[in-house]
Amino acid sequence: MAPIKVTKICCIGAGYVGGPTCAVIALKCPHIKVTIVDLNQARVDAWNSPDFQLPIYEPGLDEVVRAARGRNLFFSTDVDKGIEEADLIFVSVNTPTKKSGVGAGFAADLNYVELATRRIATVANSSKIVVEKSTVPCRTAESMRTILEANSKPNCRFDILSNPEFLAEGTAIADLFKPDRVLIGSLQTQEGLDACAALAGVYGNWVPKDRILTVGLWSSELSKLAANAMLAQRISSINALSAICEATGANIDEVAHAVGYDSRIGPKFLKASVGFGGSCFQKDILNLVYLSESLHLPEVANYWRQVVDMNEYQKRRFSKRVVDTLFNTITGKRIAVLGFAFKADTGDTRESAAITLIKDFQSERAFVNIYDPQVPHDQIWADLAEASPLTPIDTIKKQVTICSSAMEACKNAEAVVIATEWKEFNEINWEEVYAHMNKPAFVFDGRLLVDEKKLTKIGFTVNTIGRPAQERV
Ligand code: UDX
Ligand code: ADP
């Protein structure tokens, strides 16, 4: 049989994963027409905006979209047309953690995946390769296959592939241009292997062959959860050690450096922080916990749950350190929180540690000034409202102010808390900040960002994750 030739791709879901991934496919494969569809009209309009005010902030993304949009890259709300035209469809919809029902708080909500899959079955008039791109629990491909096969028209066959995305936000474009690996899982039948070869051919336009790994469906799905769980575990391990450092006088940066020199461990992803956030780590580990429990493996479930528990502990420990240091009360005091995104170079706030910290400060009845260079103000209000569902937004707004610069946020504050490692925070004029703060002035560095010595010389008391407090000299 001749290899399947992919000429038209549809991506269902124009979010953080589908948008950048398929924009890069379009850029690198000018001979393939790529249509990204989404039900959310505002999102699609933003992708199509004449001045490239894209719905997500990602360095380099706007150049990619500028080069390909209108050439072979299209954004549309016409989901059915996108499905009908395509030879290959990526399903890249959201899979949040379930909020109610069986598995609430752990299992992934697969409603969006199922609806998209059913839509494909209803609309398709020709055979398609359907690629599961969203991070999903193991065996989802199996359910998708069952739904598609039960609803397909005669002469339509569906081959399901799993092709998890490993991009990290903030570096998505670089990750997509030069991925560590592309992973494709398929059934090990001839049809499955042919579909796998077709998708490998698409990536082969710019990814070296030895970076394209082909495995079974199950392995592919589990590998994505495993990779995220192991990355998060590294952060929880270093954060657990940071607590020991603070109590003993060791310095977590020095420990991480020494440990990372072991080539078996390696230096990356060992930065202690106020806690990991993002849409993936917590969700994927909880997914793994749920899977382990469903498989009657409670010890395995407990092992992974501990990674998330340690992360929660790290966030609480940090906000407690703020309260303890400010003489055991922050009631009526003003705290400046610098950074609201879950990490630098993204406007994404999902599971951001800043949300937990601010909620803690609010419940201590402190006033909070927030500054983030990228997160839209509406998003901050929405996150704070969601974090405190019983508090009316007007009450929240009496306690919280969103500022338009770091300097403005720090004015008249008792303490500055660094929650996100934005580069511009390296440029802060700390002498000026100090002059405008109430005294004694405190800095709490949750991202190992400031020069402690310089700040203590100015007069600050500095508390950094993984180091004992530095008093003014
Ligand atoms: C992660 C995975 O890296 C990526 O492969 C997967 O596809 C999606 O999930 P992402 O969530 O975008 O990507 O960001 P990542 O860079 O992994 O950071 C996650 C969180 O860990 C952030 O809050 C970050 O600040 C924190 N982190 C990361 C640390 O606290 N210390 C580190 O050393 C690294
Ligand atoms: P991710 O980080 O996984 O990309 P996002 O929430 O950023 O998740 O994006 C998922 C997108 O999928 C959203 O824009 C949502 O509107 C879209 N979506 C969800 N279900 C469907 C569907 N059935 N058809 C089309 N788009 C969908």
TrEMBL record:
<feature type="binding site">
    <location>
        <position position="38"/>
    </location>
    <ligand>
        <name>NAD(+)</name>
    </ligand>
</feature>
<dbReference type="InterPro" id="IPR036220">
    <property type="entry name" value="UDP-Glc/GDP-Man_DH_C_sf"/>
</dbReference>
<dbReference type="GO" id="GO:0051287">
    <property type="term" value="F:NAD binding"/>
</dbReference>
<dbReference type="Pfam" id="PF03721">
    <property type="entry name" value="UDPG_MGDP_dh_N"/>
</dbReference>
<dbReference type="GO" id="GO:0006024">
    <property type="term" value="P:glycosaminoglycan biosynthetic process"/>
</dbReference>
<feature type="binding site">
    <location>
        <begin position="342"/>
        <end position="343"/>
    </location>
    <ligand>
        <name>substrate</name>
    </ligand>
</feature>
<dbReference type="GO" id="GO:0005634">
    <property type="term" value="C:nucleus"/>
</dbReference>
<feature type="binding site">
    <location>
        <begin position="224"/>
        <end position="228"/>
    </location>
    <ligand>
        <name>substrate</name>
    </ligand>
</feature>
<feature type="domain" description="UDP-glucose/GDP-mannose dehydrogenase C-terminal">
    <location>
        <begin position="336"/>
        <end position="452"/>
    </location>
</feature>
<dbReference type="GO" id="GO:0006065">
    <property type="term" value="P:UDP-glucuronate biosynthetic process"/>
</dbReference>
<protein>
    <recommendedName>
        <fullName>UDP-glucose 6-dehydrogenase</fullName>
        <ecNumber>1.1.1.22</ecNumber>
    </recommendedName>
</protein>
<dbReference type="Pfam" id="PF03720">
    <property type="entry name" value="UDPG_MGDP_dh_C"/>
</dbReference>
<feature type="binding site">
    <location>
        <position position="169"/>
    </location>
    <ligand>
        <name>NAD(+)</name>
    </ligand>
</feature>
<feature type="binding site">
    <location>
        <begin position="271"/>
        <end position="277"/>
    </location>
    <ligand>
        <name>substrate</name>
    </ligand>
</feature>
<keyword id="KW-0560">Oxidoreductase</keyword>
<feature type="binding site">
    <location>
        <position position="43"/>
    </location>
    <ligand>
        <name>NAD(+)</name>
    </ligand>
</feature>
<feature type="binding site">
    <location>
        <begin position="165"/>
        <end position="169"/>
    </location>
    <ligand>
        <name>substrate</name>
    </ligand>
</feature>
<comment type="pathway">
    <text>Nucleotide-sugar biosynthesis; UDP-alpha-D-glucuronate biosynthesis; UDP-alpha-D-glucuronate from UDP-alpha-D-glucose: step 1/1.</text>
</comment>
<feature type="binding site">
    <location>
        <begin position="93"/>
        <end position="97"/>
    </location>
    <ligand>
        <name>NAD(+)</name>
    </ligand>
</feature>
<feature type="binding site">
    <location>
        <begin position="13"/>
        <end position="18"/>
    </location>
    <ligand>
        <name>NAD(+)</name>
    </ligand>
</feature>
<dbReference type="InterPro" id="IPR028356">
    <property type="entry name" value="UDPglc_DH_euk"/>
</dbReference>
<dbReference type="InterPro" id="IPR014027">
    <property type="entry name" value="UDP-Glc/GDP-Man_DH_C"/>
</dbReference>
<comment type="similarity">
    <text>Belongs to the UDP-glucose/GDP-mannose dehydrogenase family.</text>
</comment>
<keyword id="KW-0520">NAD</keyword>
<dbReference type="InterPro" id="IPR008927">
    <property type="entry name" value="6-PGluconate_DH-like_C_sf"/>
</dbReference>
<feature type="binding site">
    <location>
        <begin position="134"/>
        <end position="135"/>
    </location>
    <ligand>
        <name>NAD(+)</name>
    </ligand>
</feature>
<dbReference type="GO" id="GO:0003979">
    <property type="term" value="F:UDP-glucose 6-dehydrogenase activity"/>
</dbReference>
<feature type="binding site">
    <location>
        <position position="264"/>
    </location>
    <ligand>
        <name>substrate</name>
    </ligand>
</feature>
<feature type="binding site">
    <location>
        <begin position="280"/>
        <end position="283"/>
    </location>
    <ligand>
        <name>NAD(+)</name>
    </ligand>
</feature>
<dbReference type="InterPro" id="IPR001732">
    <property type="entry name" value="UDP-Glc/GDP-Man_DH_N"/>
</dbReference>
<feature type="binding site">
    <location>
        <position position="447"/>
    </location>
    <ligand>
        <name>substrate</name>
    </ligand>
</feature>
<dbReference type="InterPro" id="IPR014026">
    <property type="entry name" value="UDP-Glc/GDP-Man_DH_dimer"/>
</dbReference>
<feature type="binding site">
    <location>
        <position position="350"/>
    </location>
    <ligand>
        <name>NAD(+)</name>
    </ligand>
</feature>
<feature type="active site" description="Nucleophile">
    <location>
        <position position="280"/>
    </location>
</feature>
<dbReference type="InterPro" id="IPR036291">
    <property type="entry name" value="NAD(P)-bd_dom_sf"/>
</dbReference>
<dbReference type="InterPro" id="IPR017476">
    <property type="entry name" value="UDP-Glc/GDP-Man"/>
</dbReference>
<dbReference type="Pfam" id="PF00984">
    <property type="entry name" value="UDPG_MGDP_dh"/>
</dbReference>
